[in-house]
Write a structure and sequence with these properties.
single chain, about 1000 residues, alpha/beta, five-stranded antiparallel sheet, 46 helices, 27 strands
Length: about 1000
């Protein structure tokens, strides 16, 4: 066992760092597979010198190096007990780009979609397109020989790899690229590690017996997605080994080798011209999987750019995800399967003709009952729905999950219907309702049995189903891995799939590359067992975890954390859009992802022996930079709501370790604001002194929000009296029955944003509504964000009691501050003792924008009351608003003035997040989050354009970061009234 002192010495010798604390080892123990191995350490090398040092260390200490980029591997490639080497943070440079040759040389840590965003202005792109393309990295794609939805048109990663510069097992550098046969022979004579590799390949592949054995046992050549073992069959095209090509390229052999042969430091790719500009997606609906597969054979005759399948199981999983549900618009009825068939041409009429021909062919063969066409930007929404399918499977409630073990099989397209028919018989035998989705056009479906790997009997099934499927794939001479790789889950089946003789050939080649087995041990050759080292201990006693919030919708907080399957959607970069995950985008550290927080919580709640299972400093550290933005509650396909779990953690942890002065101050802001409002001018002056900021733990660079001269509730009392007198004197104004609406006077509007509250009264009364405020409690938002859940629960119960008989369809409750009013729709459901009443209230609770947009749709708003003047507006959505409500209502109501030009900024999180951005230790991160997206877009907006933001924190952050004043939509509408 290597001592920590030795690892510390290794750390000091690197320009990067090596971490071996409990938290980081926990976070890197899993990927997106079912496996878990605690590594010795995690390394973050900064350069090739660091990598050489790590290789030397591994050789001397007889350990393995596990290469990792985004960690989205499904087969366990990134799981191991050596040092995980994460190159995602520092190996992110583009080295060379040749537009004319259509090539690019880059380091392995560049995200695939980010690469294509860079290439788009040049009319080029990198073709292979995985479902994880907005966070997977080129190094991982090469390691797995990734394919994705576009392989039927653009091939697989191996087809695009021109050159790999890599470090070999002795620390030397080798550049593998296309060379002539004569050059290859010359290299076999070099007295170097590289020379030994070329010599071994030549000696092994020159033998005709070996060539014939490869041809006999390897998958059919027609199967393009062939990723079982090492690609030794790639060499047989060379004239040195029985083929006709006068050149050979070992780089293509390395593609798909899962980091077991060498450590890639740069990769040169062949690029393609961008696809035709106009495309149409035909989304054909079927009554059975078998029908859809037979239809695929017909559809593939139509020069498709995509041919993807989703089955009912996955489609059902998308129903309960707020973001994915928006993308189900094309579905008609309840199909058992949907094919997504994309045609493309240079003009829309040409594309339409191709789509019509495709549909006619399907109808002529009696395939499909509905064939809607999808156009323009809506096509991307359908692609997103399909891509999110993997993560959406995590939405299955309980311990039974769709398990990746046989999800990567590929057969010849003409064999696919029969193969699936026989596969279904296997599933029926084991009483399994499997999941069918993905790349039908390429002869590869991601098939998944639904198993509970916490139970021994299902672990036995795990092996049985995998074994019988391997035998079926072999029968059709298919590939057991099409694009996800062998990893742990499939590697032990390689001898069966390609024959023992070929397997021994792979072992000898591995030995030539890596004689000391330092590169990703246990993958492809001498494999780990596929049913050992699982993420969960088999037949364990399930931990009983008592929480103050109700997590019954996920069968408890632990199972909510376990819904994270590691798909890594939370690692998508800024240019991918959306909000999740702002802390990761700012730091680029795995520790600051949604995945890391879920993994850490799962690990400690499962394995803790403490009375309080939440009582860990590691959990405090991993949750520290969570902004509780709630983006994960909607953007994570598995709905892993980290903000809710963070609130529970803070409560449980602080119950044991105490609540800090600052947390008490911020959580109880209503109590202190009541005191401060006695003399608001004096309070404002004091709180903005350096001494007060230091005492409160607030950054000196922040301005503490100023209390208004009078609270909204105080103003309302006077306003209500005046309104009553006015009504009694002018009864004619009530000829039309006014609709009564209740305003939730949240604590932020009441004490700080009083003018916005007044504007709300002005707007709604002008539009003919009777707006009322009754005595109620604060929202509890500050209590929740600081983990004061007992106090939050008390507030929640009082508000539910107050409103339960009052709030109906006819008399809704509306709110101004999104984070406050939306607690009724979110946290109150988990906190309320009277849950039925909380749910009833939630159905009739709206943001101001939602309410008014609904009234507009019902033709209850006289739009002639608004100005016809022109104005340009840009909307920044509050994070909770985006996650729980959406910004479309804001867009709708701000378009009431007929000449207003309104756009929604794709701005992510502003970075303030309530008190988070005021806290001195979080100020820098808070501003970095703003700089990632929002601030530059606001700065680039013309001064005459108005910035609109519903969130009070957002408005403060926009001002601090850009010196621009943002207005609430209510204020914009008030100013727009004639």
């Amino acid at each position: 066992m290597i001592q920590n002192a030795v690892l510390e010495q290794l750390n000091t010798s690197l320009s990067g760092e090596v971490l071996f604390d409990n938290l980081h080892k926990t976070l890197y123990a899993t990927d997106a597979s079912v496996y878990r191995k605690i590594p010795l350490a995690v390394a973050f090398p900064k350069d090739k010198k660091d990598l050489k040092t790590l290789i030397d260390f591994a050789t001397k200490n007889k350990i393995t190096l596990i290469p990792r980029t985004a960690g989205t591997s499904l087969a366990g490639q990134c799981v191991g007990d050596g040092i995980v080497v994460d190159v995602a943070k520092h190996f992110t440079k583009t080295i060379a780009f040749n537009k004319e040759a259509k090539t690019i040389q880059l380091e392995p840590g560049i995200v695939r979609d980010s690469l294509n965003a860079y290439l788009k202005p040049f009319g080029l792109f990198f073709g292979p397109n995985t479902s994880t393309s907005n966070r997977c990295m080129i190094g991982g794609m090469v390691g797995n020989n990734s394919s994705g939805s576009t392989s039927i048109k653009y091939g697989v990663t191996r087809d695009k790899v021109l050159e790999i510069e890599a470090l070999l097992s002795d620390g030397s550098t080798a550049t593998f690229k296309e060379i002539s046969s004569a050059e290859f022979i010359h290299k076999t004579k070099e007295n170097t590690q590289e020379g030994n590799i070329y010599k071994a390949i030549y000696e092994e592949l020159s033998l005709e017996a070996n060539q014939q054995e490869i041809k006999k046992e390897f998958p059919k050549e027609i199967i393009h997605r062939r990723n079982t073992g090492y690609a030794v069959d790639e060499f047989l095209t060379s004239d040195l080994f029985g083929g006709t090509k006068p050149t050979i390229n070992v780089a293509k052999f390395l593609s798909g080798s899962e980091g077991t042969l060498a450590f890639s430091t740069s990769i040169t790719l062949q690029l393609d011209d961008l696809p035709p500009t106009e495309s149409i997606m035909v989304t054909s609906h079927f009554t059975s999987i078998q029908e859809s597969l037979k239809a695929t054979v017909i559809a593939m005759k139509h020069n498709l750019y995509n041919c993807e399948l989703m089955d009912k199981t996955i489609l059902d999983c998308t129903k309960n995800n707020r973001e994915l549900a928006k993308n189900r618009f094309f579905l008609h009825g309840d199909p058992e399967a949907v094919l997504m068939l994309e045609v493309a041409a240079n003009t829309l009429p040409e594309a339409a003709l191709l789509a019509d021909q495709l549909i006619a062919d399907l109808k002529e063969n009696n395939f499909g009952y509905h064939h809607p066409k999808v156009y323009g930007k809506d096509i991307a929404k359908v692609h997103y729905l399909r891509k999110a399918g993997l993560g959406a499977l995590g939405n299955m409630i309980g311990d039974r999950k769709a398990v990746a073990c046989i999800e990567d099989t590929a057969v010849a397209l003409e064999d696919l219907p029969n193969y699936i028919e026989e596969f279904t018989e296997i599933m029926d035998k084991y009483q399994q309702n499997a999941v069918y989705y993905a790349h039908a056009g390429a002869g590869e479906l991601h098939l998944r049995p639904i198993l509970n790997l916490k139970k021994k009997e299902d672990v036995v099934l795990f092996r049985k189903i995998t074994t019988e499927t391997a035998q079926l794939v072999k029968k059709y001479k298919g590939s057991f891995s099409g694009e996800h790789g062998d990893g742990i889950v499939r590697a032990e089946f390689i001898p069966f799939m390609i024959g023992e003789q070929n397997y021994q050939l792979l072992r000898r080649i591995k030995k030539a590359f890596d004689p000391n087995n330092i590169f990703n041990k246990g993958k492809i050759t001498d494999a780990f067992s596929m049913d050992q080292n699982l993420r969960y201990e088999v037949d364990r006693i399930e931990p009983k975890i008592k929480t103050i919030q109700d997590f019954s919708d996920s069968e408890g907080i632990l199972k909510l954390a376990e819904k994270c399957n590691g798909s890594g959607d939370c690692r998508k970069p800024v240019e991918a859009g959306g909000t999740m995950c702002p802390s990761y985008r700012a730091t680029k550290d795995e520790k600051d992802t949604t995945r890391a927080r879920a993994n850490a919580l799962r690990e400690f709640l499962t394995n803790s022996e403490k009375p309080n299972r939440f009582d860990y400093q590691e959990l405090k550290e991993v949750f520290d930079l969570c902004l509780s933005c709630k983006a994960c509650a909607s953007e994570c396909p598995s709905n892993v709501d980290i903000a809710t779990m963070k609130a529970e953690f803070l409560y449980q942890y602080q119950e044991t370790n105490g609540y800090s002065f600052r947390s008490k101050l911020f959580a109880n802001n209503v109590k202190y604001n009541k005191l401060g409002s006695i003399a608001p001018a004096l309070t404002n002056a004091i709180l903005n002194t350096p001494f007060a900021k230091a005492a409160m733990g607030v950054s000196q660079k922040r301005t503490v929000p100023k209390l208004a001269p009078k609270t909204l509730k105080s103003w309302y009392k006077n306003h209500n009296v005046i309104s009553s007198i006015s009504t009694s004197l002018n009864t004619g104004s009530l000829e039309k029955s006014q609709k009564t609406v209740y305003l939730f006077c949240d604590e932020f509007t009441n004490f700080y944003d009083v003018e916005i509250g007044k504007d709300a009264f002005y707007v709604l009364e002008k539009l003919g509504y009777n707006l009322q405020i009754i005595n109620h409690e604060e929202s509890g938002r500050s209590f929740i964000s600081k983990g004061f859940l007992k106090e939050a629960k008390a507030v929640c119960n009082l508000n539910v009691e107050i409103f339960k008989e009052l709030i109906t369809v006819e008399t809704p409750l509306i709110g101004i501050e999104p984070s406050a009013i939306l607690t009724f729709r979110d946290e109150y459901i988990r906190l309320a003792d009277d849950k039925a009443s909380a749910v009833k209230i939630a159905k009739n609770v709206f943001t101001f924008e939602e309410f008014l947009a609904k009234e507009v749709e019902n033709q209850q708003v006289d739009i002639s009351l608004f100005t016809s003047d022109a104005k340009t507006l840009k909307i920044h959505g509050h994070c909770h608003q985006k996650a729980l409500s959406g910004t479309h209502a804001s867009f709708q109501i701000l378009n009431l003035p007929q000449n207003y030009s309104v756009t929604i900024i794709n701005s992510g999180c502003c970075g303030m997040a309530g008190s988070f951005g005021y806290e001195k230790e979080h100020y820098k991160i808070s501003m970095q989050v703003g700089e990632d997206t929002l601030f530059p877009k606001v700065r680039n907006t013309p001064k005459e354009t108005e910035i609109v933001a519903a969130g009070t924190s957002c408005r403060h952050q926009i001002f601090d970061g850009t010196q621009r004043i943002a207005k609430h939509p209510i204020t914009i509408l008030k100013e727009a009234l004639k």
